[in-house]
Predict the 3D structure of the following.
Amino acid sequence: MISVDVISKSYGDVPVLQDIQFNVEKGQTVAILGPSGIGKSTLLRLIAGIDPKFEGTVSRPKNMAIVFQEPTLLLWRSVFENIQLIHPELSTEAVREALSEVGLADKADLFPGQLSLGQQRRLSLARGFAGNPDLLIMDEPFVSLDEKTADEMLTLTERLISKTQPATIFVTHDTTEAARLATQILTLDGQPATLKIKETLK
Ligand code: ADP
Ligand code: MG
């Protein structure tokens, strides 16, 4: 189980987050909603352990994957190597399987620069799921894709989540996206931001 207890987070003198408490079980998906600049990415960085400077505690499993807003790929390495270098324990076959899950089986030898943005996002998703994470963190993974591509990504993500069953925490500003993936929706509001609405869906 992931347990988040953020008492407060500030940048310098500016308080950004305050009193944010929630738990996520394996197999559950929590969506964090809120307007731009409210502190969603900041909260994810605290949860992931990337930013340790806050008051509070987070308990998280070791096996964690993060899918950032930008695909954050190694541009000088092949599509295949982008998965293999992060997951050296995987066999060649398993890497190929991870690529084929996201429809990139025939792109293994290309470089990320030779992929469309949608394909780069799918590669980043495949890299996230390839290690069978206990905790999956995603920061606006479907933003700035056209409607059809975003919809395909959502369907793909739903499938990978139901197969892998991690605890998932993802950030979005799209209520439809949140409703489709999430078992629980948390809304951030105010300055400093606190949890305004906790809605359990499934
Ligand atoms: P969101 O992801 O919801 O758009 P962020 O978490 O990125 O919001 O940012 C929340 C607030 O904190 C914003 O006002 C932003 O300018 C500020 N902020 C984010 N990162 C830093 C940082 N490293 N140093 C100072 N201020 C920051
Ligand atoms: Mg953000």
